[in-house]
Design goal:
The protein is mainly beta. It has no helices and 39 strands.
Amino acid sequence: MLAFFVAVLAAPQLRTLDSLPGLPGGPHSVAYALNEAGEVAGIAQGRRHDARPVVWRGGELVELGIIPGDVEGAAFGINDAGEVCGQSIGSGVLRAVLWRGGAIVDLGHLGVPAASATALNDAGMVVGNSYPAGGLYTHGFRWTRAAGMTDLGTLGGEYSAATCVDAAGNAYGVATDAAGRNHAVIWPAGGGPAQRLDALDQLGFSSIARGCSPSGIVVGDGYDLVLGERGFAWSAVGGLRLLPPPPGTTVRFAQDVNDAGQALVYGGDLRLWIHDLTAGSWTDAGAELPPFPRASLGAAYEINGAGQIAGHGYDFATGAPQSAWLLAPAPDGFGLGEPLPGVAGAPGSLGAAGLTPGATVRLFASRVAGSTAVPGCGSLSLDLHQPSLLAVTAADAQGVVQWLGVAAPAGLAGRRVLLQAAELSTCRVSNLSSVDFR
C-alpha cells in the first residue's frame, strides 16, 4: 500500500543563534548536548590542537579537565544537575568518565580499556559503549553508582551502541541481529535483553535510535530497500511511525526530540528542519534567523524543552569548520543577531528581526550583564548593567533592522561586549547577544 504525505510548513518562529566562545588559539569547537537550563557540553580545541571537554554556562566556557596522565577528552552529555559524561583519552586508552561535584569518575569498561559515555539522565544513570573482552565491536552499557557498568548485549549479533537514556532509565540505541542487520532498540529500565523498536519491520534493512526525550519519545532513522532513507518516531504508547519527508526533500537522519514533540531532522538538502510530531508541521530553522548569521547550522545534536538546540557549523567570521552554537526561540518573537565579523576596528554588520514595521528600535551595549529598567515599560528591564545607547533606527516594512558598516573601537579587541535591542512602543526587548571581539 502506498502512503501519500503532504508536507505542512509551520508558522514562522524567529530564532537566534549564539556563537559560543572557544579556547584561545584553538578555533574549533563542537556542542554535543544541553540541559533544560541551556548549559551546553562539548569540546573545544586547545593551542596544541588537542580536544578538551568543556561546558558553556551562560555563554562562558568552563574546562572540565581530564584524568591525570591523559591527553584529550570530550563531553557528550549533561543533565539538569550539571553532571557531565564523556571520555578521557590517554595513550592507547579511552575512558568513559563522569564529571560530578568537581571530580572526575572513571566508569570502567567491559573488558577492554576502550569506552565512551554518550548520555545520562537526571538520576545520574549513564549509558555509552565499550569493547567486551575478546570482542571486535562495541556493546552498549548502562552505568549506575550502585551497580557499576552493565553490558546491555545485542540482538544476537556482535555489535550494539547506546545513544540515549530517558528519565525512567530506559536506554536506546542500535544492535545487530544474528544476520548482521542493525535495528533500533530499547533496553528496558528493569533489565532484560534488547527489544526492537521496529517490530513490524517497517525499516527492516537497517535502523538506529539516535535521540530520546526525558519522557521516552524516541527518534531515529533507517534505510529500507523499498522505502529508502526514512526517519521515525517511537513511544511505548504509540509504537513506531515513519516521519513524512520535509518539504521538497527527504529525511537524511532524525537526531533528537524533546517532550513537546519537537524533533530535529536533517534533510537530504542538508538543512536543519524541526518537525512537530503533534501538528505534523515542518520548520526550516535556518530560514528564521535575523540577518547576517555568524555560523551555519551544520550539525544539531540536542533540543531541550525550551526549544533550545546545541550544535556546530562553519563560522563565517573565523573560517573554523566546527564552531559551537546555541540556537533558541527569540523572546517575544524579537531577535537580535551577532556582529559579523566581530573584528574590533573593522566595519561590521548586525541585524534584528521580528520588529513591528516602522517601529523605532534602540540598540544598547554593555560589558557587564545586569538589570536596567526600560523607561515607560513598567517592570521590563534590559539584561545589561549601565548600558550605552549605540543606535536608534526604524524597522522596515518586514520588521527588520540592519546596521551596516559600523566599526567597533579598536580597543575592544580581546573583550566581550553584550548587546540588546528594545522596541519601546510595544515594550519588547530582544535576546541578549554577545560578541568576543578579535
